[in-house]
Amino acid sequence: xxxxxxxxxxxxxxxxxxxxxxxxxxxxGRLVTLEADAHHAxxxxxxxxxxxxxxxxxxxxxxxxxxxPELENDTFDFIxxxxxxENTPSYFEWxxxxxxxxxxxxxxxxxRRGEVADAKRExxxxxxxxxxxxxxxxxxxxxxxxxxxxxxxxxxxxxxMVVTEDIRD
Length: 169
Fold this sequence. Notes:
This protein is α/β, with parallel strands linked by helices. Helix content is 30%, strand content 27%. The chain has helices at residues 16-23, 38-51, 64-67, 88-97, 124-138, and strands at 6-10, 30-35, 57-61, 78-81, 104-108, 142-151, 154-163.
């Protein structure tokens, strides 16, 4: 989509999506992935090594809001947000900060079985995704859309955004 050479993933879990993205990188590409849970991080590292892609992937362990400032001077071509939903608005702000014109930002799990659109369905995750949508709608430097997906897990969806102008001065 954007011929990414530098990818940031917020939320690794077992590394499944990480491996798909790493496979799309050029030989000199770089993927930084952030994972809060030590067990998930260890599992993902084993998957990266087994797939022979660990040389492209840098896994940073710890809460993303603690590790994102370490990347403050970096920019990424593609950013995938798939972590704790209550912090999605903050992850989106960081994604913008780490973007440049043309960066693609994808935020996963934004439909949540239709709960996000149902005001009666209150949870920290649903509130976080609603706040993310408000921030994205107000952000003039991105073009965005969201769509529903349907699969064996039921229905969910993702938001896809393209940064339309340089964010940094």
